[in-house]
Amino acid sequence: MNQAAAWCWRLCLFGLVLTACDDGFLLVAEDQLVEGANFHLKEFTRESLDMQGQRQWRAAARDAYVFMSNNQQDRIIATDFEFTEYAADGEISNQIKAEQGEINNAEKRVHMKGAIESLNSAGRRITANVLDYNMESRVFTSSELVIIDDGATHLRCSRGAIIDMNANRQICHGPTVVKQNQPNQDSAVEGLPSDFNLFE
To answer: Where does the chain have alpha helices with state H?
Structure first.
């Protein structure tokens, strides 16, 4: 076989390989990438384990954009974001959902925005549109509206809040509504309904 025929066969074989691989790869259009991202992953999940192999947390997202720095993962921006923390016994201690989440590995922080909802194992529900979470200290912070539902208490923090999950306490900036409805209790003041709110 001469040189020209050999090259022709190689080109044909190379073309077959390319067409066979075409269906298996999803090409990401340049406009889908977040500026500066090194990778785009679909159906992303990531877990963190302690030294004994126990799960500490799990992050999941429909799309994740990974940013690298010095050949290490620096941060991840994720859409349809879900972040789950686990207690020492392996049970879920806190679950957070948001339209977008950004995990900063160096700072051990998660910045979330858009339809954020957090629910812990004790039943405390936190809703907000912008929220930061420190994974080490387990503290939420925001300077925008935060709503906290904890048992019979409904707290609306119009100028943000600091919520310490470990200490089970919060600082509410600009509380606009506080309700404490406890079933089967009479109002403290005769003639006032049990759901009377001094702050409304």
So the answer is: 3-22
Contact between 182 and 193 under an 8 Å Cβ cutoff? The reply is no
Q: Give first-to-last CA distance, the chain, whole Å.
A: 92
| Length reported for the chain | 200
**pLDDT tops 50 at residue 17:** no
In this prediction, residue 166 has a pLDDT band, given cuts at 50, 70 and 90, of confident
Lookup: tokens for 62: 């429909």
CATH class, domain 3-180, is mainly beta
Q: What is the pLDDT of residues 115-135, one digit of tens each?
A: 999 988 888 899 999 999 998
Q: What is the pLDDT of residues 66-83, one digit of tens each?
A: 888 888 778 889 999 999
Q: What does the domain layout of the chain look like in residue ranges?
A: 3-180
pLDDT at position 14, please? 42
**97 CB-contact burial (10 Å; exposed 0-12 / middle 13-18 / buried 19+):** middle
Cα 160 off chain centre by: 18
Phi/psi at 62 (5° precision):
-70, -45
In degrees rounded to 5, what are phi and psi of residue 183? -65, 150
Report pTM.
0.67
Those residues whose C-beta lies under 8 Å from the C-beta of residue 99, and which sit 6 or more positions away, are 79, 80, 81, 113, 114, 115, 116
